[in-house]
Design brief:
about 250 residues; alpha/beta; eight-stranded parallel β-barrel; 9 strands; about 20% strand
Length: about 250
Amino acid sequence: MIVTALNYAHRGASGYFPENTMLAFIKAVEMGCDGIETDVQMTKDGVLVLIHDESVDRTTNGSGLVKDFSFTELRQLDAGEWYGTSFTGVKIPMVEELLILARNTGIRLDLELKSGLIEYKGIEEKLIDLIYYYRLQEHVILSSFNHYSMVHCKEIAPNLKTGLLYMEGLYRPHLYARTTRADALHPYYYSVNEEIVRQAHIEGLLVNTFTINNPATMQRFIRMGVDGIITNFPDRLRTVIAGENGVGVLPK
């Protein structure tokens, strides 16, 4: 049986390059990923940007909350040097930069809305408008730990796919997902077992799990039948999938 699990690069090829930067995204594509998982936040002047934390402290040379920076101010920060001096000068990207990359390469996108700790008013509408502007609605799944946000996305754009992020051992998550009209479960891999995958598939749900970096664990979840694996090392996952399919290198 041919393995069809999708290879999502977590914040790009973040095992090798500064996370959530165009460098990490481009390198992930070069490594053969099927899609990119990333995090969407919003500046004080309403520009959607790709950065995981609500603050810039960990991954830039600045300090403060993303929401308190204008895009021009945010763009002046260095988002690469923290990872290594060879990456000095790398910048925080706009969502549109990644959307253009996806349009030009055909990759999928898993866009996580960071609308939990900080309420970004209108972030769902802004992101969905951009997705449709670039005609990527068939290539995108929206995800969030804020399931109210996912319900709101379905209200705005019923045809866009949504995935529910969670880390707990939810009881019958396939039934819960039905109440939100979600298309997928996005659990932390410790929260997944074969029965959850089986029931999700019966319900017509996808299961995309995060964040798996160990090849043996990748192999176990592929055999469990998950639909996608989110990893910091898309090259490793590509090799594992190729091995499961009995070939040296999978064609793109």
